[in-house]
Design goal:
The protein has 230 residues and is mainly α. It contains 14 helices and no strands. Helices cover 79% and strands 0% of the residues. It starts with a helix and ends with a helix.
Amino acid sequence: MKNSDFEEQLSKAIHLIQNGSPQVAEKVLLELNQINPVNSDLFNLIGVTYSLRNLHEDAIGWFGRGISICKTNDAIFLNLGTSLLGVGKIDEARAAFKKAIDINPDSVNSYFNLGNLYLDLGQYEDCIKSYNQALRIKDNFVDCLINKAVALAKQGNANQALSEYKKGLNLEPENLKIHLNIASLYEKNRKFDEALAHYDKAILLKPDYPEAWNNKGVIFGELRMYEEAL
């Protein structure tokens, strides 16, 4: 196979992965792997096709084969960490994310995923540090702003959390998750008017948003406005 044909097939496989057809992409990648069995990027992409189907044990095997060929490919360690999380191997996942960062200190997704790992563990200081590193690299990373705000709220820092959410809203004014989270934070602090305003905004954007309708009902119940609650 000519190099140009190889690259064309590789681009086809990546396109298939990005467009939700990992199983079809796997077949293309396996054929390319037969032609070039020492290409770590191929092993990484094959692993991704398994990871996307939640076949994490298989994915881990492919990532491991890629690492045996190239130990300086940060993308493989990042994806390995994701699959290790998928099978509950927290410590190994953390080590994989940190290895990816050691290889590439600007690996924004490695910092983000490491932050998410710490968030799930309730280690909020560590997770905020990781999110800050990700935001240092990519300051318009909305999902990172949201998760940082979640961590700050868990710490009881409502004002700082609101500040991060508002940064996210400046970037994505119609982000449903941000409106819901802001409303929930206001509701928790019994600022019901502010909460209702954000639930209403979420409903305006998505009229069939059950969480927003339900939470409005809870607030009206708290206010003893029972007809409105119903």
